[in-house]
Amino acid sequence: MENINGIGASAGIAIAKAYCLEEPEFKIEKKLIEDAESELKRFEGAVNQSKTELQKIKEHANRELGTDKADIFEAHLLVLSDPELLNSVKEKIENEGLNAEVAMKEVADMFVSMFESMENEYMKERAADIRDVTKRVIAHLLCVQVPNLSLVSEEVVIVAEDLTPSDTAQLNRKYVKGFTTNIGGRTSHSAIMARSMEIPAVVGAKVVTTEIENGALVIVDGIDGTVIANPSSEVLKKYEEKKTLFEVQKAEWAKLKNERTVSADGYHVELAANIGTPEDVKAVLGNGGEGVGLYRTEFLYMGRDQLPTEEEQFEAYRTVLESMEGKPVVVRTLDIGGDKELPYLDLPKEMNPFLGFRALRLCLEMPDLFRTQLRALLRASVYGNLKIMFPMVATLDEFREAKNILLEVKEQIKGTGSAVSDDIEIGIMVEIPSTAVAADLFAKEVDFFSIGTNDLIQYTMAADRMNERVSYLYQPYNPAILRLVKMVIDAAHKEGKWVGMCGEMAGDEVAIPILLGLGLDEFSMSATTILQARSQISKLSRVEMSNVLEQILNMKSAQEVEELIKRKFFDLISY
Q: Cα-flanking dihedrals φ and ψ of residue 481, to 5°?
């Protein structure tokens, strides 16, 4: 029996035979060709085959996972239409007389190396996209079969180094009961996809591909982050019982779908969901969401070759507002930059894009782009309960400038005789430490705060959350982070304003008791986490939690905080 520890990325227990995903072996031999025209046709044929496959994968992902996940493959299709990449391959075939697979590999390696060396996380992700896409083209050139996980026809647990976007999108949930990978974290692509598909997953397990043999019986515990290969009969029985209990627990959570979220001592908080597209609203309502706490509008701008029109944006915003039937919808204005770029904007490269020209800073410098989005939002406001939130606000002057532009656009629309809601709250994301420290000043002017803990934590700890070497510093329970959160909540409440949280921390079962005690008003999370959080909060006393806050805030480490919560409230945070 082999026990392997990793990161629980998607809750649940999977028990099945291991399906070890092996990369196809490419034997690429360098050959000089005489008929360049024939070789170019062979290359173009492989590209077209790959495009056809990716289009099918995109359509499958759109049906099964939603538009935002399918947009990943729109980006892949754009790679196969990139003239710089394709022309570089063709030049090697025509000018150097190289065979197509060698030319493709040399160009792909150059692009991958270039992107991987960049600090920008988005560009590093593009390297993975290029590797995934070009591998498919080379496979066709070599007549090698690429693994197709959609063809799996028996219950298995996928064991892999990592899962690419195209791998994950092809998972057949009927047969793929779970997966485990050597690399990855809770915010990695495969982890996010697993949660949306409700497939148990353990990522970052480092040695699963070397320690687990194909066909071996495997347990994936996505709750505790454990993988067990070849379990004893006693261990197998224990996990079968745990699996049954978890399924029973999920059925109990489902009964809370239409309930309000109220603590054991009668305090109501709002459980909302983070979404990326109008299609995501179905999951929000299906899981009893009381609102949308974060609508990431950048997905409207990504995976395309030009800016979305005002009308396209208006239709998307209206659809979400109407579908939520009067429940609050917090829309974040365009948050591009850092790990999200728009190639068609042709922005200058930066040494440190996460701290550079992004989000609201970009919008204020590109007012036409900003005003188009604001017009679409304001026109849609009459169709529901809209709240507008500006991201990456560092100074009061930035907030005031953005608000003034919004109010100017509002008056222009009203001047044309079009209706605009007069009940739109205007708030900011708190994701920069200086903004949290100055929350008392901001609270006098904003209508609400939403704490973006993903960035707030990495900026406070000076640690890139996507960098595995410093990932240990991504500490949501660190007393320094909790003190900043308390500052923001206290400052807002003093001015009669409400505070939400839309980072991963809001759905974390260890953090939830602390946040309840701190007085957080709205928790926004993945839709599939809402019912579990509602159940947990119903058993917690806000007063009791507030009574231990002083002890928590004066602890010396995140580990101490976690241990205290688990010791005092274990029965209320465990499955």
A: -65, -45
- Cα–Cα distance between 214 and 197 in angstroms, integer? 24
- Rounded distance between C-alpha atoms, residue 429 and residue 432, angstroms: 9
Q: What pLDDT is stored for residue 303 in this prediction? A: 66
Count of Cβ atoms closer than 10 Å to residue 153 Cβ? 9
Instruction: Tell me phi and psi for residue 532, to 5 degrees.
Output: -65, -45
- pLDDT per position as a tens digit, 42-81: 999 999 999 988 888 777 777 766 666 666 777 788 888 8
Instruction: Give the active site residue among 76, 140, 363, 502.
Output: 502
**Is residue 80 classed as helix, strand or coil in its secondary structure?**
coil
Which one of 3.10.20.30, 3.50.30.10, 1.10.533.10, 3.30.450.40 gives the CATH number of domain 2-20+149-239?
Answer: 3.50.30.10
Please give the biggest Cα pair distance in the chain: 81
Q: Which residue has the tokens 């550079």?
A: 356
Residue 175 contacts residue 154 (beta carbons within 8 Å): yes
Question: What's the CA gap between 406 and 420, in Å, rounded?
Answer: 12
Domain 260-573 has CATH 3.50.7.10: no
User: What does pTM read for this prediction?
Assistant: 0.73
Q: Which of 84-93, 310-319, 500-509 has the highest mean pLDDT?
A: 310-319
Q: Domain spans of the chain?
A: 2-20+149-239, 36-142, 260-573
Active site residue 502: yes
Are the CB atoms for 527 and 286 separated by under 8 Å?
yes
Q: Are 392 and 359 in contact (CB under 8 A)?
A: yes
Give the per-residue pLDDT at 188: 67
Q: What is the mean pLDDT of residues 304-316?
A: 91
Q: Could you say which of 20, 60, 189, 493 is catalytic?
A: 189
**Do you know the residue count of the chain?**
575
Are 320 and 276 in contact by the 8 Å Cβ rule? The answer is no
**Measuring CA to CA, how many Å separate 157 from each of 23, 225, 575?**
17, 15, 22
Task: Classify domain 36-142 at the CATH topology level.
Answer: Enzyme I; Chain A, domain 2 (1.10.274)
**Distance of alpha carbon 280 from alpha carbon 62, whole angstroms:** 11
DSSP 392: S
Q: 3-state SS of 510-550?
A: CHHHHHHHHCCCEEEECHHHHHHHHHHHHCCCHHHHHHCHH
Neighbouring-strand partners of residue 271 = 523
Distance CA 387, CA 425 (A): 5
Q: What is the pLDDT of residues 143-159, one digit of tens each?
A: 887 777 776 889 999 99
Examine the residue annotation and report whether 189 is marked as an active-site residue of this protein. Answer: yes
User: Tens digit of pLDDT for each residue in 355-386?
Assistant: 888 899 999 999 999 999 999 999 999 999 99
Task: Please give the structure tokens belonging to residue 79.
Answer: 């790679």
| DSSP codes of every residue in 199-216 | --EEE--SSHHHH--TT-
